[in-house]
């Protein structure tokens, strides 16, 4: 196996930073939708709104998990760089491997969240098509 250098985990910084920005934007969009649904629900207690709120809640929790795994991955990349700096190569390799696994989990959750989002939008589209 090739020796891990400071450059390897540092390369992930920009990728993880962009991913975290996208996750944050999703989170903010969901927050706006939740506030809107909340106001609508207070005016009219509709069952359909409850379903939408449950869907958004599920997506919000997935986004939170995506953020936690992404941030943990970034944190472990920083720890990897520190371990390389203090010449703890073997530990650094394992920590970096763990960071990659956490990033994989985060991206897998993103796929799941996107699928839920698409199903919710398909439901709205079918409502439009039926009317």
Automatic annotation (TrEMBL):
It holds the Pfam family DUF2721. It comes from the Bacteria. It comes from Confluentibacter flavum. Keywords: Membrane, Transmembrane, Transmembrane helix. The keyword Transmembrane applies. The chain crosses the membrane at residues 12-34, 66-85, 91-111. This is DUF2721 domain-containing protein. InterPro entries: DUF2721.
């Amino acid at each position: 196996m090739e020796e891990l250098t400071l450059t390897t985990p540092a390369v992930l910084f920009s990728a993880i930073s962009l991913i975290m920005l996208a996750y944050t934007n999703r989170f903010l969009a969901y927050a706006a939708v939740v506030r809107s649904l909340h106001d609508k629900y207070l005016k009219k207690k509709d069952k359909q709104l409850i379903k939408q709120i449950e869907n958004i809640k599920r997506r919000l929790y997935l986004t939170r998990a995506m953020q936690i795994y992404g941030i943990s991955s970034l944190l472990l990349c920083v720890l990897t760089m520190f371990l390389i700096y203090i010449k703890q190569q073997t530990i650094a390799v394992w920590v970096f491997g763990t960071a990659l696994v956490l990033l994989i989990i985060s991206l897998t959750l993103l796929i799941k969240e996107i699928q839920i989002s698409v199903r919710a939008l398909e439901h709205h589209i079918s409502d439009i098509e039926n009317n």
